[in-house]
Automatic annotation (TrEMBL), chains A, B, C, D:
Organism the protein comes from: Croceivirga radicis
Keyword set includes Manganese: yes
Keywords: Isomerase, Manganese, Metal-binding
Lipoprotein as UniProt keyword: no
Residue ranges annotated for the Xylose isomerase-like TIM barrel domain, each copy included: 131-289
InterPro entries assigned: L-rhamnose_isomerase (IPR050337), Xyl_isomerase-like_sf (IPR036237), Xyl_isomerase-like_TIM-brl (IPR013022)
A GO molecular-function descriptor: isomerase activity
Stated name of the protein: Sugar isomerase
Superkingdom, natural source: Bacteria
SUPFAM superfamilies: Xylose isomerase-like
Length: 426, 426, 426, 426
């Protein structure tokens, strides 16, 4: 299903006068402080976040899963869902495929479907943390790190296959997340596991097309509860350096130990030209994968502050790949994703307001109070009118969730797909 | 299947001379320091830990599950597995049922089967964290805390049903673990959720037979990632007090925030007469549910030090119910449980060695160095001969895992049950 | 020194037109959504936070301290500093004394000085975590929990003395923070330490004047690194209940283990009528005591959301005592406190905007997306004009820090007090 | 003061028969399992740990300090204290100087004093986290990272001075611990701070004598509570690589976020040839700096397991420098250090017992249960007789703390130095 431009336009009309009043007031204020409001809005329009193919269904925990009705049960339907999101928000113009959950049966048809929905193919993701039916070897004791060479070779071959699929679709990068690790002390030899992983990644890297990038994810724990081979950014960075210039570190916000200063990691990676990709979500305890901005919005702002600074100043770093990686245990997945997209845009907009010149001067003078005031001046600003204006400029909805509800889209999806459809994924 | 006494006896013979030498040496040492070795061994013999009915199969994480071959696919087979464990270790003489995963179809037959395996029925566990087929209302948004009265009533009725089943089997306590909570700020009104939970628990309490106990578990997070209604021992203790004298707090080692001093919680609860039950497992990050003693054996010792002290000194506290609550993602579940049982016995034995008189004197004099020396003297002692002796006295194996492997028990289970049998549980 | 009303008025004039434009725009918006703007502003005017007497000087860590120039070196000067803060912010109308750092030599003169500065005396704080010169017994191994009765009696007597001093000044509450605990396993008997503490607190409670309250603080660690006698709210709550109706729990934001859900603790305590006091600060790692709102402003908002709800709905709970308890290691202490006060007012103002009726309805319907939207609608609002209006109404500065800098107050303090004056405190 | 060999010999006599019985029994057991007991004991004899010059006095927290009587008040007395430790334990044959707390006034005399006590000079430590009297620039806002070039130059010059002092004494390495960081978001530009730090370290590196090493320490927080420039091993490793082959990472056990897998970091660094030094202590919450082995002795064993493996297999890695870095807030510093030394030797001895051949085979076969059994077989062994035998072989005491107490050494130190002597340090 699709939403027509007229539907969005008509719904917007009820909100547009109020929106204009708010936007004009804010634009005046920003103007007066020397900001180019049009440029800000253009930057927000240009900021596009990929939706992973597994994020359109309900998520779950090890204690079970509560299904959501009207879930997409095919890759086509997933792309349609992202198309809906993109129509409403104009911020979700890409899909990130997960293989083997979403192997296209008909590549051309899928490309067509994506084009129709104005969706491009972002990074493809391999999966060596689960066993698939008819798989020769099990990944129970690791994949790229396995002591058994045959298992490593199977995992390498799978990654090559994923590259091939991605290449056919127009993707330009491979994201490797390894669950490899150990549940118990002694289970793995740390050095052997790391060396095997490095060698395996190099094999995959060799196969990478010239214009592709390899993103190496890190995570301290889960699903292994004693150790993970790529436990932190330092390990990922070391492996990316060992692979070569097309290999990068990927930061997932939920993949850190308690209290980690993530924004500092972001700054370090961009300084060294090695921040390749970024997975958005939020968390209070571990890799909770809850809606972006729902728990620690100020941290998200501080991270965007580093991203904005790095994009501006670190030409050695490529423009990062953005993706939402959240799990929708409690909410309608589409509404949840709209809340995440809004939170990302808000954090980005606030970061764009930071007066970098004044901040630099205050840092130079060690005027710590002023440094904080400068950040808070940006953060305390209500930027929702900017974000809405960017959506309007691009043809999206003033208030996406309200529009989604008014148009009764979930009900239409249920009518089409039924109550018991199940999306592939976790 | 069963192991004959002869099989155990014969396997023991190969080890018995070496064991005696070790035991005699240790017994002499302990004797010389004024300890009654026979009493120590008797206490170890008497210490029995319940095995939950869901612990006989492989566990999993939200990222999937790797099956183990020969899993028990019925309650009868689960009791048989516990019977095997108990024959080998003589420490696992009880089962803790989980309803509705393990509702006995024929109560008499199950009681017979248990008697045959010398297994008693410990606490029964209710489940209101998952939806069962044909359930009228969903627990997606909570059970005993739900804003919808009908959901609360359904959950209360389920708990009553569990009591009834347990009563028929000879259980004397109900363990309530509530996943109730919220994934997002604002989702729940904390006060309403807590009040509903208190009222619901009181309803269940009313239904409790005269000689039963109610154990109220607490947990800070998972499967809810923003808040949990019974988030800590303080909340559980408050609710237990509100219910009445038959209600107690249950401590699960994995249900705490990072760095919590669990042994202090144990001491406080025993002082106040409110420690009802205890779930053993180990963890490095969260509720990892790995083998007892595999990560922090010294913490386990410190906890046992408080338990031993409390059992000796706090007559206001009932003898606690012990259970292993671990997940077997990587190991053969039966071997994993034997490692857990051994770790528990070792920690208990070491705690029994602590010279309480000297410790008290050192504490009184603020001789902190001596306090540590006294604990370390106990902890550094190699108590494995004591634990083995206790097993031998009770008819178990000198080396349970070795015996299990030599007797090729897993292979026999696979032969009987097949490679693809699946145990009910997580 | 003092700031004249004219000085504030004149400085305000440069900002007032801009402020009015902002306030009017916001007031219109809030009006349209059914809020009583005047009532909101009045509530902000009424919200007063105590400044502790030790917060006017530079703070330090165990690695040292970098002094700040112009620190107050007497209680009189400390009250003057709070007077300055109050003139500028109109939010700091109380002082919380710490004994023995700030024993008034001339009670009448001090009361006069406070009156002059429109400062009242909030809770008084005892100190049994440090040894004072000529003290008979050391608190090295604990105070109210000490195994030595003479030490406990000394500590009880000190608390009585603090009550007496507070009573003379007009205070109505005593805050007890105990560092008591252990650095090593075995050092303390948990049960003995807790029982002694309970008995000692009861002794102090007995001495409490009729219209006084006793606030019992909790903290998981530091300065003791293995255990703390009152380690969490549960312990404090239990002790407060044991003492009687005038005893309450005091929550300090920095006194929690990583990831604790503090707002839930607040809600629970208010439901049970036992939240007595509140210490504001912020932290990323432990009890960092940094500026309020500088690290986790959304958490602060969520906490205020519970406070606002509780003040409105929990008549069983007294109006809590508010205090800032931060350490000023890097910033001018007065500027730091102004940033804290602003952050508190912002969080309070946003919490007042939450549409409680809609929220309740969304909670009832399990519309989790709507629950989040309602909180975010309040949180994303830029409430700075409300907070500034409240200050203006009360005679304070539109922009307190800017005014403080324009009036060169720190320089005046240095001129009067010198560069090397040192405030008593940590 | 000094202990005579006769004193130790005579005290040992009372214990020696019992010791021999224990040692012989253990040696037989180990022999039977194929271990070379003499080699084990020789390795323990050879293992020497440096004592930092600041560890001979009482430590403190930001809440104060409780002095210990008889503290050494000069560098000579500190070396004497280490001499006493070394005589008793034969494990403390080195001192690590901290500049400027312990600048030798007469280098030759100090060298003489050290020689006399059989103490060598290990790594020297610079201090740019505190301001010294008459220092031109303050380190309040950082040293090697400071935005002010003059501050950076002062800090570089100080490090050069420390190298010079160390060189005169015979040290061969410099340890740089930087407190540099920020208390608030925005205070520092992460990229600038990191770049300045890298440049400054390179300047110091250039000055390093040919046969010296540079150890770069990392720490996530404290004394800065928002960010630290060298926050983790990844940053330290990156900087060490940037400096050159003589630069290494130094691991301090307390300098990690909660739940960090430290043993994996150790393994990674040794694989890459970059583990230079090691600071021993223990902790439950943060950088608690409590006695080694007092909180998590099993973690210490797992770390030693990696160290033993790396020393054996990673010829690319130099033999690491060992030091105890603990704080003595509650215990007699000398007794505390003896407990730490014992804990280190116990962990090392147990790690030496791990059957590496069997472990490798079990890892290869993914026999996780066996992997754990192999580690536990080593860990559960009571190795105290081995450690005592090593001490006896080297001329030390069978039971150092008991001997220290019997000889009333603390009393003698008080008699010589007085009750109120204060050691320089934190």
């Amino acid at each position: 299903m699709k939403i027509s431009k007229d539907q969005i336009y008509n719904t917007n009309q009820k909100k547009i006068t109020q929106h204009h009043a708010r936007f004009d007031f804010l634009a005046n204020e920003l103007d007066a402080s020397g900001l180019q409001v049009n440029e800000l809005v253009d930057k927000l329009v240009a900021f596009q976040v990929a939706i992973p193919s597994w994020a359109l269904g309900a998520g779950g925990t090890r204690f079970g899963r509560f299904s959501y009705q009207g879930e997409p049960s095919s890759l086509e339907q997933k792309i349609e869902d992202i198309g809906l999101l993109h129509q409403l928000t104009q911020t979700a113009g890409a899909v990130s495929l997960h293989i083997p959950w979403d192997i296209p049966e008909d590549t051309l048809a899928i490309k067509e479907k994506a084009l129709e929905n104005r969706i491009v193919f972002d990074a493809v993701n391999s999966n060596t943390f689960q066993d698939q039916k008819n798989q020769a070897f099990s990944y129970k004791f690791g994949s790229l790190c396995n002591t058994n060479k045959a298992v490593r070779e199977q995992a390498i071959a799978h990654n090559k296959e994923v590259i091939k699929i991605g290449n056919d679709l127009g993707s330009k990068s491979l994201t490797v997340w390894l669950a490899d690790g150990a549940n118990f002390p002694g289970q793995n030899n740390f050095q052997t596991a790391l060396s095997h992983t490095e060698d395996s990644l190099k094999e995959i890297y060799k196969y990478l097309p010239e214009d592709w990038k390899l993103f190496i994810e890190y995570k301290p724990y889960e699903p292994n509860f004693y150790s993970t081979v790529i436990q932190d950014w330092g390990t990922s960075f070391m492996l990316a350096n060992a692979c070569g210039p097309k290999a990068y570190t990927l930061v997932d916000l939920g993949h850190h130990l308690p209290n980690t200063n993530i924004e500092q990691i972001v700054a370090t990676l961009m300084l060294k030209g090695k921040l390749g990709g970024f997975h958005f979500n939020d968390s209070k305890y571990g890799d909770d994968d809850v809606t972006v901005g729902s728990i620690k919005p100020y941290s998200l702002f501080l991270i965007f502050n580093e991203l904005v600074y790095g994009i501006e100043n670190n030409k050695q770093n490529p423009y990062p790949a953005w993706m939402i990686d959240a799990s929708h245990n409690t909410k309608d997945p589409l509404e949840d994703l709209m809340q995440s997209l809004e939170a990302i845009q808000i954090a980005y907009a606030k970061a764009l307001l930071v007066d970098q010149t004044k901040l630099k001067a205050a840092q130079q003078e060690h005027d710590v109070v002023a440094c904080q005031e400068i950040l808070h001046a940006a953060y305390n600003t209500d930027v929702r009118p900017l974000v809405a204006q960017a959506r309007i400029n691009a043809g999206g909805a003033v208030t996406p969730i309200e529009t989604y509800r008014n148009l009764q889209i979930r009900q239409s999806l249920i009518d089409i797909r039924g109550k018991n459809s199940v999306a592939s994924g976790l």
